[in-house]
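Protein 1 of 2
SEQ + STRUCT:
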Amino acid sequence: MQAPASLTLRPAANTTALDENQRLAIYASGGWVAFVLLSVMVLNLAWSVNAAGWAAGLSIVKWAALGGILAGTGLALTRWPGAFSRLYALIVGAAWILFVTSTLAPAELTLFQKVQVIWEQLLSWTTGALSGNPVANNMVFVLQVALLSWWLGYLAAWAIFRQGRVWRAVIPVGLAMLVNGYYGPSHLRTYMLIFLISAFLLIVRANLTRQEEAWQENGIRYARDIGFDFLRDGAIFTVLVILLAWVTPTAAAGGQLSSLFEPLERPWETVRQEWGRLFSSLNYQPSSLASAFGRSMTLSGPRTLGNGVVMDIKAPNGNYWRGVTFDTYNGRQWINNDQSTTTIGMDIPLNAPAYSARRVITQTVTTYLRGESVLFAAPQPIGALVAGRADVTVLPRAPGAGSLPEAGAQPVDISRMRSRQQFKEGDSYQVVSSISTADETSLRQAGAAYPVTIQQRYVQLPENVPPRIKALAMQVTANAANPYDKAVALEQYLRTTIQYNEKIAAPPAGVDPIDYVLFETREGYCDYYASAMTVMARSLNIPARFVAGYSQGDYDAEAGVYRVREANAHSWVEVYFPNYGWVEFEPTSAQPTVVRPAQQTAPQDKQDTADDEALKEKRDLRAEEDKYGEGQDVAGGDLPAGQDFVSLPFAGQVGVGIVLLAAMGAAVGLLSRRSRRQQPAVLAPDITLRIYERLERWATRAGLGRRASQTPYEHAGVLINALPEGETPIRRITDLYVQECFSPVAVTSRDLQTLFVDWQSLQPVLRRYWSTYQRTLPLQKRFDGLRRRGQPR
């Protein structure tokens, strides 16, 4: 068999090149071109992980991946069975990963001492993981990523050069690229582009190899340089597909798949939360997208926010736009532990808590984030005029409190709201909030008689918080006589002593991030300001919580809206005051302070009086909207100036396509396999000939092909001698074939049903024999068979 021009790489006679059998084996799976494309695809994953900057030391991942590629390719060319090859790869891979990871240990140590350090770090990480506490150990993370890269490289090479299944190589690497690109910085889209091009070209090369074999077996002449033509056209096709994915709205962005993935949201959030606990010291990339407002938030390293428009909000006045509140701090993460949910919507009354000095407002939000579902509202949200769900804390109903719910019902505190359907760019929704109008005098006089549920939940701190944090909080608030003045003192201390810096490094492993900012770096961004104030307030038994969302943005007087951009992503603090509820504080020095009146004045108009009465009366959200709503919706649909054309991350758009393509391929393969295994309701008239032809193909590939001089019965005798356990189905299939071809007696439907059952029982026998036969062949013939797609049917 003559190789096409693109594969005729012949080493000189005096080189230490691969022998002839090995060259034939590589050719059988797509040649050196396939090996190069595979290497680029897998190494590109290693490069993208390193570029994401999750932790120091990820530069070793490329060497781990390269080792896996070489090991997988070399073992695929041997005659060793799969189980032994995998065991050998496990041993070699473990040794190689330990070696490359040992380069992260101090250089003055011996190799044995470096391995000891790695082992101790791994034991320490395992102990912490099992204890349920946050674990900060970047070396173990790098070790695990290196191990994963090794296995991805090994399994991809094995899938192509031993099994001939290119999709088994592409899909795992693609999923890893998708996860890294989605949660990593935006500049990683270049690596996603490289992956798509190399993966598509690898698929083209593998399919071309199989097609060349079919042409040569059938004596079809074709150009020797056809390999170059296919790769060139494949590259053009790949670019067109990428451009199409770039400009075409995805199903996820349009919300069509939201109902499909909704049951997976909470389990996935749990996975993210657990991941953040196990690797709490990584350099996570803070994001301004709504997808970042989940059930956990890890204090991490530098953040980079763009200037793209996130949403326009039509509201009576500027405010914070809250996305989610967090109640639990574990020393590295903030966690939302609300387990209860409630339905929100147009005509659904909400049992909101009643607090004094509140005013109900309606806001109209026009979002420019496609595929998102988090609803943003001014604090305290009490409902939405769009169908969705809200994570809530169920509060005890105080007798005689005059609360909004019906008698006997319990009020709820909303921590996060999500729409039922994901939004498209330009969609609008309305939310209702009960904003605080409390003055300083009232808050000073509120006292410290906190409800038990509030006290238990919102003064929680982990046991390992450094004592000097509380000592500092007590020192700062020494002259404050009430919780409000203490909160103001903490707020002003952080604003004046901590320098704003979005490029700080992540806290080192084993270092408390609040202690790190307060006493070491004395700089940080809003996540650290808000975390520090919340922890310091809690250390003084003042209920406080961490809140994430957006600052008010810039007011567009012409449109009458607040324009919120990615750079407005923000976090702040809410402190609880008896009878007044949660009140916002702003400890971040880069943001303006919250201005409150010094003392409550008499209502200036009837509107203020109506606002106070609104929370006391039993009115549903629709009535409140009619009374306090601001009228017309914001005009939506046009892309605002400065907004990127594609709001959804590139990795997200292409990734959805990859996942859907893989799912479709898996579904087609599964259905195809099931259709071959299950008996059709109506058997085709030519089923006898088709099954006999399949039997002949199996026999040919197992070295038992029928010679031209043999009759069907003579060939059946040969098969029975080799496969005695298949004697009965072989005889019946042959009998029906002869009857169909040479007898005037027609084959009955009952005969066809029996024939199908016989074929199903014979296939496992043929597979076992074929597998045994393959291991006895020399490399040239063995890989000639492996060029075909998997095993014969």
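Protein 2 of 2
SEQ + STRUCT:
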Amino acid sequence: MRVLIVAPKFTESPGDFYQFPLGLGYISSALKRAGHEVHCLNCNQFREDPVMLVEQTVRAINPDVCATGGLSPFLPKVRDIFAAARRAKPTIINIAGGGCLSSDPEAGPMVMDIDAGVIGEGEETIVDLCDALETGRDLSGVMGIVYKDAQGTARRTIPRPAIMDLGSVAWPDYEGFGFGEIIDLQRPTDNYFFHTMDRPRSVDMITSRSCPYRCTFCFHPTGKVYRERPLDDFFAELDHLVARYRINMVAVIDELFSLKRQRLLEFCERIKPYKLQWMVQLHVNVADNYILDAMKDAGCTYISYGIESMSQDILISMKKKSKKERISLVMESTYNKKIGIQGNLIFGDTNETLETANESLDWWANNRHYMVNINRLQVYPGSPDYIEAVRDGLITNRVGYIESQFVDLNISKMNDEDLSILSTKIWTAQSSLLNLVKATIFEKEPEPDPIRKELHRIAWDCPRCQHHNDYRGVLLNASEFKNSLRLTCRGCLSRFDIENANRVKFEDHYVLAELDGLFAQAKSLIDAGDQKAAVAALQQIITRGSWYWPAQTELGRHYAAAGDRPMAVRHYGAAVQENPYEPQCHVLFADLMVQERSIGLALLHYRQALLLDPENAEAARKLAALEAEGWTEKEYATYCTSYSETPPPRRLENEVSGCGGKRKGETEFPDIAALEVKALQKRHENGDYTVHRYPGGHLSHPKAAQHDEASAIDFVCTSLPAGRIMVYGAGTHTARLMDALAQQRPDVSVTTVLDRNASLTGEFRGCALRPPNWAVTGEADWIVVAHPLWEMDMIEVLLSHGMATEKLFSVYSNPDFAAYTSKAKERLSA
């Protein structure tokens, strides 16, 4: 068969770094080995829109099959590829694979225009599937797929056994996707692993598949059976890659590098002669001093550890099979042996409380030299957390959840408000508590990269080992480098933050004078006692520039005085996030933390203010007073407090205790659809129709009407009056509506997207992303609420914030929409 395999576009422009799609490379090689005619399209190598590229390619080569896939976060890109292929050739056979399909196979055909999907690892399955399609064999006999039958119903076949001999799998098709061009463009700041090389030439490889552990937040796209690749096959491929691409670095991207001590030592012995730099992901139970010494000696520069929590209760809940004492010991050993450390703490496990979150944050605060990242847990489709959330009624519409891109579902033992503010605090800490080092050289290099453009040289002296670092070929165009760069010392492999000398400082913003004038007007309103008008004026200012910290902190002061502590934290936090080098922002944020008795966090921000400005008398005075106050040990270790007495999300009674812990007899890819049906039946039995919560905390109803999304979008485009609008809900439903309005309604401009979990600095599709209370700022003529499941609850949230009902433009709850769809059906039937 003639097969087109498409790599989705992960980049903004050609030359930008992205991780090579290794899974698609394996699929291409398998099909080529089986004799199929394979064409590869790597959208990352073109400036053109991927949709246009796919349509042009399908028309040019007329393939029988279009195949693509990826992890769940890339679902929108994958879906666009299939839609484009179908438009170009209606009879094409679309086949999906990867995590976006395998994580919930029955949902795949409902969120993507596909004819079949490959579940789990795909090398054998894709060949069998293409053979069946070519010969007309019944697809029900192809193991490991989901497909649509003649009636359009999704059918799932029996699972395909895991490939036990990984040495029999053909090496990835690097050439088909233009890897030679990709590796030539790599630069030191493209990835933390690349920091040790001015001209990195790195390749991703695997020595095993899946993972022997069952961490509750993790989904294994290649199945649950852990298998190790023969080292002879790995090193034969490595020989080929060294000769073909002149690689000098290898990222071993196994979900978990070898658990067998002797195999790990053999790997070190065999890779050492190559004189390559390499990195792996390792479990702390494997890492002892002898192993670490062997890895260091063999060229290992970075180890990524799965830390996740420093509360033993949460480590047990996550089924991490690790002890926090062991984690601390291994981190210290790795750091002392001068091996780079990569790790994460994630907050929001099913048993997470404020107490356990404070445990982890206290460890992080006292071990910042490891530079561990802190983030909120995301409930990824297919993970045990996801399966449990479906079973317990926290997710009741899997398709809707997947399409929403699974943002911020609360599965913890904290209420929505407490978890939301915890998220604000950890992001504020992550982005503003910096381990600062001053650059000795920060200058543009005379010769730009012909494709990636302007390059820089950054030199600095390491405060830990005094090594003089001189980075060449540094790119500054990544959004994460807006204020600073986190770079690795090439001597001791510790990481430090270097201020971006090219950053736009507060005083350099071109609209500063204008916003200063507006701020003066807002202060006059405050002095006159017109708080409502003042708040509206301040909100307009930060819509123009979220970086304008005087308005952010003045809003924080207003909400604190009004008793709305969550909004106060959000505004003070936004000021620090946008201005991490402004000592006054840290001081004001710390002041608020003292008021709520989050003493640990207050100490960190007072100290950061003094690090930025050692002569800051206010920060020094307040820090000294706080340290002399005589707080208890528990108070010093407090970073989060409660903001609401509302209960955490209510679950249906669990049928089993925990999820994902069982090994023998465990289903490879469980029937999640059946769990959803059982949960729905249980709710009906209980007479409880509003027990579940979706992202944003909105209540939904299991009997929510299923409307045609296309009709809803047509209704808005046809009926919405002209003017400026805000749209509630940061999901794919809103994204499609915005696209349609941009094409059909030039007289309508979307100024803001509202979402319950939005920060005060975020963006969605180029528009400001703000909390629902933004609806009262007066910046829009209409507030559009259009969601088939949560519309009534969204409206209730807006009304609770004082939104004027005459500004509301609803859809699914709008009687005019019902009349519109009835007329549309009458026209179609006629």
